[in-house]
Sequence to fold (321 residues):
Amino acid sequence: MAAKQKYDLAGKRVWVAGHRGMVGSAIIRRLECEDCEVLTVGRDRVDLRDQAGVRGWMAEQKPDAVFLAAATVGGILANDSYPADFIYDNLMIEANVIEAAYREEVEKLLFLGSSCIYPKLVPQPMSEDALLTGPLEPTNQWYAVAKIAGIKLCQAYRRQHGADFISAMPTNLYGPGDNFDLEKSHVIPALLRKAHEAKRTHASTLTVWGTGSPRREFLHVDDAADAMVHLMKTYSGDEHTNVGTGNDIPILELAELVSDVVGFQGRVVTDPSKPDGTPRKLMDASKLLATGWRPKYTLREGLEQTYAWFCENIETARMSA
Ligand SMILES: NC(=O)c1ccc[n+]([C@@H]2O[C@H](COP(=O)([O-])OP(=O)(O)OC[C@H]3O[C@@H](n4cnc5c(N)ncnc54)[C@H](OP(=O)(O)O)[C@@H]3O)[C@@H](O)[C@H]2O)c1
Fold:
């Protein structure tokens, strides 16, 4: 991994932007092991799309380091239905936070993106240098363009001002705090909820959309947070870093594993009349893994932990649909 330079979080004031989100709250949990002061601010006090609000808060709080985990996030349906929100909100949030971080001489900033930054027909596994080598997936291009702009903002402030701003692109994440609303959720929370309800209603089958053959990669959010802190402490470079496990699994196998974890005894069936999506989406995480970082959760352990969290928090989890 290029350009290593240790950054010590001890004694630092660390702002986690987006602290109520799945990733932000995992970063807060992870920072409990660091000797630093964690700063947070709710959207009710500072809407990060508001430049004056962000500048004022940063000038008052003067963080030393920033994890930028705030974003307007959603699945294909939400991206397709609200393209203006996805591009505007995310561009504004990242431009405001990154510019204010530069003005307030923040020592280190980590910007979070996702695997959707890569072209639709990219060779697998997707390596960092595949960025901007082809057209994006049209349904989430609004979000992807904003996230690519975030990477470029970090690079531009590094080049022009010498700011130590870096970017990390995690694979599909899951874990406590995930969104279990079936209209908005990603595949793991959707399957956990469907299997839970199928068990409760003694249904005989659980249906998976498509053929079940597409392969996807998943990382527990606490492992992702650990990787963010690792990068914050050890990486300083222009290029973004993929954050993943290097392993993927067919969706049908995942559904069977989820059923097992949940205790759903029925059969998992496929519905090939529904679309499959991209056959494979795997991050090339070799750059990160070469630093010695490893995820702690196996997929089964992560699913067990997430299902336990879901059962304990069923009243408050995000699951309106
Ligand atoms: N989830 C995944 O699978 C995944 C995978 C790869 C990368 N990521 C990246 O991780 C980051 C966080 O994702 P997440 O899953 O944690 O999303 P999330 O659960 O929806 O959390 C987003 C956070 O951003 C805050 N936020 C959004 N708009 C804001 C605004 N205008 N002003 C202030 N705060 C605002 C939200 O505040 P409220 O609590 O007030 O709504 C929330 O705390 C994103 O950049 C995403 O691309 C996520």
